[in-house]
Write a structure and sequence with these properties.
83 residues, four-stranded antiparallel β-sheet
Length: 83
């Protein structure tokens, strides 16, 4: 899986963590907001992306052996509430 993580304004999000739960695959986004995960099992999996200041996002991805799947993930800002 390769992809780009963007914020609500469309700008790349640096330092976001992308991973597939239940696997060891994890990656952090760079300056361009891009990431790459490899050695994932085929099938429909959940890609999860987390970044400080944003709501976590889960996206379904269909993986096939020998094929790269591209995904763009848009994050929304966390709304802070104080008691």
């Amino acid at each position: 899986v390769t992809g780009t993580v963007r914020g609500p304004d469309g700008r790349p999000v640096r330092g976001a963590r992308a991973f597939v739960p239940g696997t060891a695959a994890t990656a952090a986004t760079g300056d361009a907001g891009t990431f790459a995960l490899d050695s994932l099992p085929a099938g429909t999996r959940t890609l999860e992306v987390r970044a400080i200041g944003f709501e976590p996002r889960r996206v379904a991805v269909d993986l096939a052996s020998g094929r790269t799947t591209a995904s763009e993930v848009r994050l929304t800002r966390t709304v802070a509430t104080l008691d």
